[in-house]
Amino acid sequence: MAFEIDNIFKIYQMGGVEVPALRGVSLRVKKNEYIAIMGPSGSGKSTLMNIIGCLDTPTSGHYFLEGEDVSTLKDDQLAVIRNKRIGFVFQTFNLIPRSNIFHNVELPLIYSGLPASRRRKLAEEAIEKVGLSDRIKHKPNELSGGQRQRVAIARALVNNPSIILADEPTGNLDSATGAEIMTIFDQLHMSGNTIILVTHEQDIAEHAHRVVKLKDGQVESDEIVRNGRYAAQEQSA
Amino acid sequence: MRNITDTFESLKIALQAIKANKARGLLTTLGIIIGIVAVVTTMTAANGLENSFKESISVLGSDVLYVSRTPWVHSGRWFEFRNRQNLTLKEADKLKTQLKRAVAVNPVTDTRRSIKYRSRVIDDVSIVGTTDKHIVVSSGVPDYGRFLNHYDVEYKHFVCVIGSEVKKRLFDTVDPINKKMKIGRYDFRVVGVMEQQGGAGMFGGPNFDMQIYIPITSFMKAFGGRDRDFDFVVKAPSTEVLPDFEYELVGEMRKIRKLKPTDKDDFSINQMSTLVAAYNNVMGVVVMIGLLITGVSLFVGGIGVMNIMFVSVTERTREIGIRKAIGAKRRTILTQFLFESSVICLLGGLVGVIFSFGVTALINSTVMPASISIPIVIIALAISVLVGVFSGIIPAYRASRLNPIEALRYE
User: Fold this and answer.
1) B321 to chain A, minimum CA–CA distance in Å?
2) Is domain A3-236 given the CATH code 3.40.640.10 in the classification?
3) In chain B, which residues have their Cβ closer than 8 Å to the Cβ of A53?
4) CB of B318 within 8 Å of any CB in chain A?
């Protein structure tokens, strides 16, 4: 089991009014699953992503990440979890603009306290996986959107996380580049990673093997995609 | 190990951030630079003053006690001393015979007169009546010629020994030895020139280089001695026994003055350390005020840095969000920004110290001898780092508490 979410509620206080964003969401995700979370805006998918990514904690309910209850951890404990077990890929790439590619990818390892030699090896490996070894000294603003997103993927991979959490990873890319990025995610999945895609695009979601749809803070549907693009491969495998 | 890595990385990140905003960093540090220059200059000036003061009073000798009618340093108790009897030469003689342990007892008195050589006149010069014992009790020695001797005193010779500055101003390039000069209305023959001693003139004290020494006997003959007040310069066997010796001296003086056990002393014992203590009191206050004022300028500089740190945190809200999302703890963010402000201030401090060397050189060549010491440099740099921590702590704390979700959403 990669993680298990059990009857989670998230309620925001807005000017004294309680606004529920999640109303009893439960989800069990096994290792090496490839999941898409879909839903219209306001459905609670961002909130759910924040909780799965340990950026936020639920108002009630439990979240077990690899068997450990992380729903009540403090800020700094969550930081450690995010560092070691979550790899984020954002819609807007979110690279550090002043730092070069290598340093961007190395950063999570610095926060884990690894020695420099080990950091260098792991970061170079991750950059090689996304095919940017020749750009290692470049700054983010010297790269195309697709290349930036690849750097972000390398950064997400570098600490060998339990979950890779991608929030609209192709939202800022043209469709050809978006397809390239999705190919990388497919490869990562095939090499054993657990991937959560948050998206509202149907054809992106089709890469996943399981689609969870949210509506009004609740799970509307949760189904294995039989017609998924890679379903045939998986069934034969 | 982990902390070292953390610290090193924070430092690297801080330097990167500063490099990215050079112009802003420079303007920000200006306040710190000025503040540090002010601090260093104040401390250097205080040091310089203290050194030249100590140098100038070292002429007095640390193993020497001065018996005088009034204390050198007191706080306005004039009436207490007003009725005291003058110290007389007779009392000096008695003291000489009774206080056996004294290495020397030298009575001195002084007046101010015009002096003249050929057509050159200097007004208001300090004329000191003394004896051949003078060079035993003071550290001044003749540069050339000789000092007053026993016979000069015994036979009331009208001879004089002049200070180095008197020589320069009155005789210029002429060799003054055996030349006749006028002190007041009387002719005196120059027998020696004292070596340069450095003046306490800056402190309103005597400028030893502008003094003229004549035999005390000739002094009384020329300028009158009946109602004159003398000081007795008494040299102790050593500095170690000085407190003991002072006690003895007071006892002998009380005997000479025939004081009853219940009477207060009607004379005062002065020594170098009284002056040092008085100086330290005064300078302590002056330096405190100086540092207070410079402290204010540093404070203002610090506020400037704080301001820029707030801007920096706001500008980089998103970056902070990213860092937190990929695992930076609160402390990591806190150190990153603290390092940034400390490094800005340390750089400002370094530049300030460099400028201070220039300012000090200027002071040294115009006002007084002054030089920057290593401890002052270290203190200045430590202060600038402290200012950095002080001005960075609130912005850094704010950065460390940012909610990663909101920070990531920040545009």
Assistant:
1) 9
2) no
3) 325
4) yes
For the residues of B192-211, what is the DSSP string, one character each? EEEPP----GGGTS--GGGE
For residue B1, list chain A residues with Cβ-Cβ distance below 8 A.
113, 115
Of A76, A83, A113, the CB nearest to B326: A83
Looking at residue B7, what is its pLDDT? 74
Q: What is the pLDDT of residues B61-96, one digit of tens each?
A: 788 899 988 888 777 777 778 888 888 888 999 999
Residue of A56, A110, A116 with shortest CB distance to B405: A56
B171-191 exposure pattern, b = at least 16 Cβ within 10 A, e = fewer: beeeebeeeebebeeeebebb
Q: Does B17 touch chain A (CB under 8 A)?
A: yes
Instruction: Give the number of beta-carbon pairs within 8 Å between A and B.
Output: 68
- H or E element that contains B253: helix B242-256
Question: Which chain B residue lies closest to A81 (C-alpha atoms)?
Answer: B327
pLDDT band at A232 (very low <50, low <70, confident <90, very high): very low
Cβ(A33)–Cβ(A210) under 8 Å?
A: yes
Residue B337 structure tokens: 């920004």
* B22 vs A: CB within 8 A: no
pLDDT digits (tens, 9 = 90+) for A164-181: 999 999 988 998 999 999
Contact residues, chain A, for B324 at CB < 8 Å: 79, 82
Mean of per-residue pLDDT scores for chain A: 90
pLDDT attached to residue B199: 55
Q: Where are the domains of chain A?
A: 3-236
The pLDDT, as a whole number, for residue B278 is: 82
In chain A, how long is the greatest CA-to-CA distance? Answer: 55
Structure token pair of residue B84: 């005291």
Type of residue at B262: T
Domain residue spans of chain B: 2-56+277-409, 85-266
